[in-house]
Amino acid sequence: MNKKLLHEQLIRLLEEAYQGAVDAASRAYDTATNDENIAENKYDTLALEASYLAQGQSLRAEECAADLCAFKKLSSSTDTVKPCVRLGSLVVLLDMQDNEKYIFFGPAAGGLKLTFAEKEIVVVTPGSPLGCAVMNREAGDEVSVSIADKVSSYEIIRIY
Description:
Blueprint: H1 3-33, H2 46-73, E1 90-95, E2 100-105, E3 113-116, E4 119-124, H3 129-134, E5 142-147, E6 150-159
Parallel strand pairs: 2-4
Antiparallel strand pairs: 1-2, 1-6, 3-4, 5-6
Helix pairs in contact: 1-2
């Protein structure tokens, strides 16, 4: 599994998300400031609603920019001496039903999913329950995660 190519694909996805957020913020701003949307009476709230939307889209664009920046700073190097799970690690987990789960331990954008090398990979952050459970663990370690009163157990079978 080429982690450098995976990292590059993640950055491309985050760049697309950022551009989409910027475009949405721009459209919302244009709507909010359009002369045709000037309120004709106190019940005409289109411009006000559009301004709230523009503000939200602007905040979303800032979040996307921060995610992108965090991933660009992330090193994609690999440890050759007994690697442990850390930011930038690609981790293969095995659940109790012998299903493999691929997670990329990232600094942001938790929950982002992509297909790479015919595997579905999910970005997991250190603040998530699964992220807390696997952080600083090594291959062969077993971890349990409790989410909404449901406990899931995994074995770390590989770290890239």
